[in-house]
Amino acid sequence: MLLLDFAGIVLLSFFIVFIFIKKQRKQTDIFLVLSNLNLIILLIVDAFFQKQLTPLIFLLLNIVPLFLYPLFLIFALETLQETFHHRGRWLLFFLPVTITTSFISADLFIFHDYTKTELEKLYNSPTIIYHLLCKFFPLIFIFAFLKLIKRLNDYSKSIKERFSFVEPIEVTWLRNSTWIYICIILITLIGFLLAQFQIIPISLHVFCNFIGFLLFISIFYVSLHGINQYTISEYYGFNDTSSEFINTTYPNTNRSIDYDINKYKTSGLTPNDMQQIFEQVVLLFETNKMYLEPKLQLNDVAKALKISSHHLSQTINSCSGKPFYDFVNSYRVSHLKRLLEDITQQKFTILSLGYESGFNSKTTINRVFRQETGISPSEYQELHKKLHSLSD
C-alpha cells in the first residue's frame, strides 16, 4: 500500500506542477491545486496510519476527505461563473468540516486521553456521534450536488442558445464528476453500515483504502479535464446585450420592421413578428455568411440585426426548431458539403475545409456533420468522388 500511496502522490504532484507552469492560469486552477493537495495529504496520512494510529492521524483521516466536497462545489461554481457576491456564502460549504474538526479535536485532545487500544477500537467501531459527523454531513452534500447537476444542465442548454462553438466551455465532464462524487458518498455510507453491523466481513481499513482510490480517480478525472476547461468570459469575453428592439433597417436589405418595445416587454413576439425576424436572419446568413466566424455568438447576430438577443433566440428556436448552436452549425455543414462536393477542393484536407466552413475543431466537425447527414465527412467526400467518376 505504501507503494500505491507514493505513486498517487507523485501523479497528483505532477498535476500541481503542470498547473503552475501553465502560461495562462485561471481562477479555477486554484481549486484544482487545493483538491490535489488535499488528496496528497490524505495519502500521506494513510502512509503514517499503516505504521501507527495516533490521535492526530485519527483526526486527519476523518476530516481531510470532508474538504474535497466543498472544494469541488466551489470549483464547479467558479467554472459556471456564479455571481461574484455569492462567494461569501461559499464559506458555508466548509461548515460541516469545521464542526467535525472541532468535535473530534475536543474529544481527542481535551476531554479524553485515549490509549492506543481505545483509539483503534474507536476507529473500527465509531460511536453514534462519530457516525453522524463523518457519514451524515457528506449526505448533505448530495443535495448540493443534485442542485449543481440541475445548474449544469441549465448551463449546457444556455450556452447552446448563445454560442456556436461550445466544446471549450461544455461541462459534460463536470456533470459526470458530480455523479461520481454522489456515488462515492453513497458507497461510503453503505459500506460503513455493512462493516459496522458485520453484514459483510470486510476490513474497515481496506474499505477506506477503496474509497480513497475512488477519490483519487475522481480528482484525476476532474484535474485532467479542468486544466483545459475555459469559462465563458475566458473563451468568448463579455459582451453587452441589448434588451430592446430598435427600429432600424437591416443590413443588406431595404426592408425595415417597426417593433413596439413596450409590447414585447409584456406579451412577447407574435408568430408574424418572429417570421419576419427569421427571414432577416436567413438573409443575413446567406449574404454575409456570418456562420463562417468560428466564435460567432448570438449577440453578434443580434447586434447586426439591431434586435435583442432574447428575441433573436426565441425566434430561432421557434422558427427553426433548433437552438442557436445547432442552427449555425447546420449552415456550416451545408457549406462543408459544398466544399466536399467540389473536385477542385479535394487537394485540401477535410480538417482544413472544416475550418474554412466555420468549425473550430476536428471533433466538432465529425460529430456535427454525422449528426446532420448520418455519415462522416470522409464518407460523404468518397461518395461524391464515386458519383463524379460515374458521371465522367
From TrEMBL:
Coiled-coil intervals, chain numbering: none
Xref: InterPro entries: Homeodomain-like_sf, HTH_AraC
Keywords: DNA-binding, Membrane, Transcription, Transcription regulation, Transmembrane, Transmembrane helix
Keyword field contains DNA-binding: yes
Residues of the HTH araC/xylS-type domain: 279-383
Record keyword Membrane present: yes
UniProt-listed SUPFAM superfamilies: Homeodomain-like (SSF46689)
Membrane-crossing segments per the record: 6-21, 30-50, 56-78, 90-112, 128-149, 179-198, 204-224
Protein's name according to its UniProt entry: Helix-turn-helix domain-containing protein
Organism: Parasediminibacterium paludis
